[in-house]
Structure of DNA polymerase epsilon subunit D:
Amino acid sequence: MPKSQTEAEELPRTIVRRVVKDKLSQSSDGEDVILHKDALLAFSESARIFIHYLSATANDICKESKRQIINADDVLKALEEVEFPELIDPLRVALNEFRKKNAAKKSGAKANEADKKRKLEKDPVAPNEELEGNEDDANGICGDDDDDES
């Protein structure tokens, strides 16, 4: 059964609950915070609306620049345009950490690929070498043919 438009756009409640509880417990000296179901729904809907508003603004900025792909700078400009400049610096920090992590992963993957390449150059193993046997058997010629009665 296809989901309705609102259900498909709904944020996962467990993630919203975790984010809200973590943030509220940080500001309340580590005390466990209890959320009412209505409060969780309000947080979820607020976040969904904020995401829509921010993405629409970033999309407008992207189109003004005559581009089709929204990039991080568009989102940063959109935050300023929707009057949330206090979010720009933490977002830049998170973005830089994300980029460093990805660069480390890419360099690690390239190093692994280079190691594999070196190993293959040193000890090349053909995939068909595992199936050793009589060459005639590989061609479908068997030496046990007792059909010849001459």
Remarks:
- The chain has a mean pLDDT of 82.
